[in-house]
């Protein structure tokens, strides 16, 4: 069985991408959580991840690190990870790579499933990122028929955008009606609801990631400790 090494569910957007993909694809794995707490996380993570970052997948004696690399490794064995249609598959790979290498505003912040933030002044780079994501969602739904980004089935593209969907929702940012409907579909996935629920119940708080939310705006709700 695969072993998937992940970090805190409340903070680690990159861990969520692979975790959700494997859950939605019904790929059995043993979850290994290594938290950010206790000092130098790179030193701690590098004891089992060559890059010192998470997620990292272990397949017997083989290690695969980086979310995009793990996705492609799994896709060699499971065809449904990417769309079957060639055009949809090329597009899904492109937007996943764009999320992986771009969208610095979102990827530089913690996931923070537990907090809702009021953003009275929206930075220009955040506004541009949300507009781009809104455009991509509408493009995918229009070209491939929905209800998921690249067609009728959940694929890696949806997994790669799932953390950003959580953030846009928790920042209370506006998107088009079509995009909002897609966001709600992803947020309603039982596996994603499971991740968020477990994230909210985590007892750990890391000041570095907590401060990131305060840089965006005023925290208006913290769901932790609500039972």
From TrEMBL:
Pfam families: GST_N_2. It comes from the Bacteria. Residues 2-82 form the GST N-terminal domain. PROSITE patterns: GST_NTER. Gene3D superfamilies: 1.20.1050.10, Glutaredoxin. InterPro entries: Glutathione-S-Trfase_C_sf, Glutathione_S-Trfase, Glutathione_S-Trfase_N, Thioredoxin-like_sf. This is Glutathione S-transferase. It comes from Microbulbifer variabilis.
């Amino acid at each position: 069985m695969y072993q998937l090494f992940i970090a805190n569910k409340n903070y680690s957007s990159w861990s969520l991408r692979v975790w959700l993909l494997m859950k939605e694809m019904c790929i059995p794995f043993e979850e290994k959580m290594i938290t950010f707490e206790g000092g130098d996380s790179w030193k701690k993570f590098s004891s089992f991840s060559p890059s010192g970052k998470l997620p990292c997948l272990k397949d017997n004696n083989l290690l695969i690190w980086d979310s995009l690399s793990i996705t492609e490794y799994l896709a060699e064995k499971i065809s449904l990870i990417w769309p079957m249609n060639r055009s949809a598959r090329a597009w899904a790979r492109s937007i996943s790579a764009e999320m992986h290498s771009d969208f610095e505003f979102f990827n530089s912040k913690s996931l923070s499933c537990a907090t809702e933030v009021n953003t009275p002044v929206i930075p220009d780079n955040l506004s541009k990122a949300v507009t781009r994501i809104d455009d991509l969602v509408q493009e995918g739904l229009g070209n491939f028929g929905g209800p998921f980004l690249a067609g009728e089935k959940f694929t890696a593209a949806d997994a790669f955008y799932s953390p950003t969907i959580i953030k846009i929702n928790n920042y209370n940012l506006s998107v088009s009606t079509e995009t909002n409907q897609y966001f709600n579909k992803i947020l309603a996935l039982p596996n994603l609801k499971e991740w968020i629920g477990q994230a909210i119940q985590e007892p750990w708080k890391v000041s570095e990631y907590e401060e990131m939310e305060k840089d965006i705006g005023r925290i208006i709700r913290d769901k932790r400790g609500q039972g």
